[in-house]
Amino acid sequence: MHMRETNIFTLKKGRSAPLVFHPPDALIGVSFDDDDKIVGGYNCEENSVPYHMSLNSGYHFCVGSLNREYHIQVRLGEHNIEVLEGNEQFIYAVKIIHHPKYNSWTLDNDILLIKLSTPAIINAHVSTISLPTTPPAAGTECLISGWGNTLSSGADYPDELQCLDAPVLSQAEYEDSYPGKITNNMFCVGFLEGGKDSCQGDSGGPVVCNRQLQGIKNRPGVYTKVYNYVDWIKDTIAANS
């Protein structure tokens, strides 16, 4: 099997993250909230989402809840997070880089980068996902993945990685769901059912559309628009190489 080493970017929200880039120094991009949900999804086929990773500090956790980056471990090649399947890579973080304009009140600019201590090895179980070249278009079918809560009410966290296919909503649709709370750096993915948008709490995790990472979870059903941060990501990588 062909394998190569790479330092990697990922962008994510909550308990998991996607690998998106392989610059000279390994970093991971994430966001802050921990309310991941994958409601109405299905078990991902093993190795079908090789860019996804788990973030840990002795357990599967939300990155934004920790202050000491050396306690953060990235687990790549995961499918069942409760079982060592033999394909995992375990890498510690050495640096956390917050977006300088992050607003904890509005959740605007909800993205950060984590520099990894050693390169990841790219193989059949671990791969990267491209950064976006165009913004997410309404109606585009996207893949959301994660180990988030599978219940809208209550809690049931799966061991196996969950997938959910869902469309990008129009600005009018997500403004109805979160009036006055969606900035130009956010967009919504989900379904409209019975007049209520499942954007209110039915999905979480990275959003990949046409094989490009478009979103990292900002709040239930709402995602940070990665397209708006491509220059910041690249500049930050260069400055920390």
UniProtKB/TrEMBL annotation:
A Gene Ontology term for the protein's cellular component: extracellular space
GO biological process: proteolysis
Domain Peptidase S1: start-end pairs: 38-238
PROSITE patterns according to UniProt: TRYPSIN_DOM, TRYPSIN_SER
UniProt cross-references to SMART domains, sorted A to Z: Tryp_SPc (SM00020)
Alphabetical list of InterPro entries matching this protein: Peptidase_S1_PA, Peptidase_S1_PA_chymotrypsin, Peptidase_S1A, Serine_Proteases_S1, Trypsin_dom, TRYPSIN_SER
TM ranges: none
Protein name: Peptidase S1 domain-containing protein
Species this chain originates from: Pan paniscus
